[in-house]
Amino acid sequence: MSLIDSFRAEARAAPESGIVAVVNYGRLREGLIPLWAGEGDLPTPAFITDAASKALAGGETFYTWQRGIPDLRQALARYYARHFGKTFPEEQFIVTGSGMHAIQMSLTALAGAGDEVIYLSPAWPNFDAAAALSGAVPVPVTLDHSGNGWSCDVQKIAAAITPRTRALFINTPSNPTGWTADHETLQAILDLARAKNVWIIADEIYSLFHYGHGRAPSFLDIATEEDRILFVNSFSKNWAMTGWRVGWIKTHPSLQQVFENLIQYSNSGVAQFMQRGAVAALDEGDGFVAEQVERARKARDLVCGILGATGRARFTVPQGAFYLFFTVDGITDSRTAAFDIVDKANVGLAPGTAFGPGGEAFLRLCFHRRLDQLEEAAHRLAKWMKSI
């Protein structure tokens, strides 16, 4: 028996990220414009890094509150009061080592071997893989796509529920499609979850990156305190903190000790000086977030205009998040296309094959970057489209 054969089947089966495969192929190309990853091009702003540096210099380097320092949990409560109009006690928040860690902790709490977890596809690939690693069976339900854009048929979710279903993973606004659920759809999903006695893992990480009026609709707008919903979120996108790896879970106060125990046996808590930076992000960062959303809106419109003018790109203008998920006439294998685009256009995109059922023919472009780079990248892509 080889070394790898002695590993758990779930670990051996963990897939290589289809996004990272393209990144590794093209990341050292001179002059390449990287639009493959889900992050902006701005470093973390000084008001956040200064708060963390001050805490680091001040000796806040010891073991800390595993559920998060009280100051950060109180800042989260203030954030929700401002943006969601809801008052929550600090006992409803658990600080995690990234949004991905929040998802892993939620899956650990809810699903194990043989359990099923339903998710909407095309989807960020990490959820599917994380569910499988926990021993659960990830069950994709595809969003519908038509000339009217992306939509969710709640009856398709209902048809996928079995006695083994433990949770529904709902990401809105969506990575990669930009689909954003309206209140009617959220209500239908919540009604279904209540009727079937299953949990919802609500990934609302992009709720502020919404191009309608204000933030995106949320389960918080319609849920009661006793609804079975775990809200997972991250500091990465709103405040340019992707490398910090800090996130949170919002949950019922009665579940605090369970999640504190899960934190204890995973990362044992987030570094306290990093949490000080997160407090600054929440309390001082609303203006920064608003600027980033407006910047992304302009970037979206620029890219859509240039690619749309080719007559070859097909897409729905995204309602939320900061990705353009598009097809190109004549292209059916997006993985091969993504490598070809690196070679011939010197632009890095994520292949739709990485995002599961329904995404195979698409390419994902992150437009959360400065306009001159995006304009150049879009023209390179337009030239590539004309050449194929």
Automatic annotation (TrEMBL):
Catalytic activity: L-aspartate + 2-oxoglutarate = oxaloacetate + L-glutamate
Cofactor (UniProt): pyridoxal 5'-phosphate
A GO molecular function held by the record: L-aspartate:2-oxoglutarate aminotransferase activity
Pfam families with a match to the protein in the record: Aminotran_1_2
Catalytic EC class: transferase
Family matches, as Gene3D superfamilies: Type I PLP-dependent aspartate aminotransferase-like (Major domain) (3.40.640.10)
One GO BP annotation of this record: amino acid metabolic process
Domain Aminotransferase class I/classII large intervals: 35-381
Keyword Thylakoid: no
Keywords: Aminotransferase, Pyridoxal phosphate, Transferase
InterPro entries, A to Z: Aminotransferase_I/II_large (IPR004839), AspAT/PAT-like (IPR050596), NHTrfase_class1_PyrdxlP-BS (IPR004838), PyrdxlP-dep_Trfase (IPR015424), PyrdxlP-dep_Trfase_major (IPR015421)
Known EC number: 2.6.1.-
Highest taxon of the lineage: Bacteria
NCBIfam families named in the record: PRK06108.1 (NF004770)
Similarity comment: family membership: Belongs to the class-I pyridoxal-phosphate-dependent aminotransferase family.
Protein name: Aminotransferase
Organism per entry: Rhizobium loti
